Amino acid sequence: MDGPNLVRRGAAAVLAVAVCGGLSTLGPSARQVELAAAQRNGPSPPETPAPPPAPPPPDCARAKCVALTFDDGPAASTSELLDILAARRVKATFFVIGKNVAEHPDLVRRERAAGHEIADHSYTHANLGRASKKKIRSELTRTQDAIRRASGVTPTMLRPPYGSTSKRLAEVTREMGLAQVLWTVDPQDWDSRDTQDVERRVLEAAKPGYIVLMHDIHRTTVRAVPKIIDRLAAQGYEFVTVSELFGGRLTPGKEYVQRNSGEPQGLP
Ligand SMILES: [Zn+2]
Description:
By secondary structure, the protein is of the alpha/beta class.
């Protein structure tokens, strides 16, 4: 879990918020199911379907974008979250732990098929900020391999467990093509385990361009997601993946905590 105790970063970094996929983008799963059904009935069996083409994401320089992110999975409760996101046509970003990917590859495939973004959160939830380069490379390489085996995707983002980073980690992530993604909103859901607390904390802290950190390994958090999405959508928010929040331009090795961080985005 991403406890706040290990690393106290600057206020901006501590406050990271994750954004979920936008209202604009869902729909792959239903269409995909129909397509798969049609293909099953047709004369030639299909290849494994790629995610369906998504509508273009919103322009987050103008739209009220927020990125919902979920760490530490996949776990049994991830399945319930995927149902919630699909019903609302919202895309999210999953920072997965390699050993959990190896245990639940089906859930990672489901995340991928629904159009969510999948990213690296180390293999054993290691404190990478205190690790040697050798240990960092081992943690990240094993996770990248597990995700690739499960879903065909090679992630381009890492969320260091506990938000713990270092110059060494910046160097290795730059070499490996991974941007470091932190967060702006942290409801401390790993600690409170209270659905209403999680709802309230996220709704009070969310702002355009923020990245919201939650954990899909806790059912108390998963059950907060419907109200969070519905309330933010009513306020005009659009839910995007982390890559979409930054217009697809993240630089390996750099740290990102909200839209106006990391590399200049050309905003005022
Ligand atoms: Zn974590």
